[in-house]
Structures are given as structure tokens and as C-alpha cells.
Amino acid sequence: MEPQPTVFVVDDDASIRKTVGALAAAMDIKTEMYTTGEDFLKAYDGFRLGCVVLEVMVAGTSGLEIQEHLAASGDRIPLVFLSVLGNVPIAVRAMRGGAFDYLVKPCGEDKLWDVVRDAVRLSRQQYDRQLQRRETNQRLATLSEKEHEVLGLVAAGKSNRRIARELNLSERTVQHHRSQLMKKLKAKSLIDLVYIALTSNGQSGHSPIPPRKSKEDALLV
């Protein structure tokens, strides 16, 4: 069961908390409200589905400091700044820091609705990709050492004959390993298999793509 998204509101302005809360409720999305940056950071347990709507000038820890804290922890939850500050350098700093959007108060409800909806949608996409990577890495972990070697050579574009020669195997054995790779990794095609190898980045503890040792070796592929 997938987690449900949450809109986190970090603002000491009660009217803003009420407005964002009402919009989120209309989208059937739950909210968590905080009046200070410190309260939010203490309560936020990291890597949640949803988005954060925050004021730059929120009491205590500022919105930009919250952004820096989340970035340092690797958390990519979309941040929507809704601020009284229309200061261009601050807005540019927030956007360069990875903010999803920077809105200036007062902001129309239609605009806020669209931004929050799109931010939550992005968060869902990020969550789905993370889940897909986790599942792929779990499948990679089931491969034998020899299967990892074959996968790396397939991803490097080498033929069955070349793989058989490099690993001192028969071509039939290489074909069997490739068939097992397709099944274990649930790859629908060779292109799919290569994509899995290229995007896994060795997350299972193995490097799927061995480096070529020389220019001459590259010419033999």
C-alpha cells in the first residue's frame, strides 16, 4: 500500500495555514501545520511523500535554512515558498537551491492550488522512481557473480562470442546466463536489460559495467 501524501505548512500566519489547509483538504490531502522552522524540523521524519509550503521569514529557523537542512540530508521533497518577500535575490537563491516554486503573498488560490497539486504530483513521481530503483536493486542482489559479469559485458555492448571468450565459457552457457538475467531482472528486451545495468550504478554491490583496459581492447568489441 502506497503512503498518502502530506502538505506540510510552515508559517506563523494563521490565515495562510487555514488557506493552504483548505486547499489541501479539497484535494483530499492531509496537512501538518507548524508555526516555526524548529518545530517542523523536529517533527519531520524525512523522505515523505507530498510537499512543503513555507515562508522564508518563518519564526526561528528560516525557510532558506530549512531548505539547506533538507538538501544536506538528501531529502528531495518539493518546497513551495509562499512569502511576503518579493526580493529577487532571495527568490533566485531559493530556486537555485532546488525549490519547486517561489510565490509572493498575497497569492491567488487558483495559482496556489495548481502549484501544490503539481508539487505533490512530482513527489509521487520521485517516490515511484525510488521504489522502482529499490526493486531493481533487490533483483540485482539475487544475481550470481557470473551473472553480474555477463550483465556488465552485455551492457558494454559485447557479443555472446566475445563474452564467452573473455569469461572462458561456451556460447551456449552465455546464452543461458542472458536468459536468466532477463527472467531475474524482469527485462522485456535486450534494450531493457542494458538500461537496467546502466542505471543500477552498482547499487547491489557489483559494478555492472567493467571499464575497458585499453583502446585496443575497445576495438575488439
Give the structure's gist in a few sentences:
This protein is of the alpha/beta class and 221 residues long.
Number of DSSP helical runs: 10
The top level CATH class name of the largest domain = Alpha Beta
Query: Radius of gyration, Cα only, in angstroms?
Result: 24 Å
In total, the number of domains comes to 2
Number of beta strands: 5
The third-level CATH topology of the largest domain is: Rossmann fold
Which architecture of the largest domain does the CATH hierarchy give at level 2?
3-Layer(aba) Sandwich
User: Which range does the strand content fall in?
Assistant: 5-15%
SS content category:
alpha/beta
First-last Cα distance? 45 Å
- The helicity comes to 40-55%
Envelope shape: elongated
Largest sheet: 5 strands, parallel
- The overall pLDDT average reads 87
| Strand arrangement across the biggest beta sheet | 2-1-3-4-5
Low-confidence stretches: 202-221
State the CATH superfamily name of the largest domain.
Response regulator
Order of helices and strands: EHEHEHEHEHHHHHH
Task: Tell me about this structure.
- This protein has 221 residues and is α/β, with parallel strands linked by helices.
- It has two domains: 6-137, Rossmann fold; 142-219, Orthogonal Bundle (Arc Repressor Mutant, subunit A).
- 54% of the residues lie in helices and 11% in strands.
- The chain has ten helices and five strands, in the order βαβαβαβαβαααααα.
- The protein has a five-stranded parallel beta sheet with strand order 2-1-3-4-5, with helices on both faces.
- β3, α3 (63-72) and β4 form a beta-alpha-beta unit.
- α6 (145-155) packs across α8 (171-184) and α6 (145-155) crosses α9.
- The chain is elongated and about 70 Å long.
- Residues 202-221 have low confidence and may be disordered.
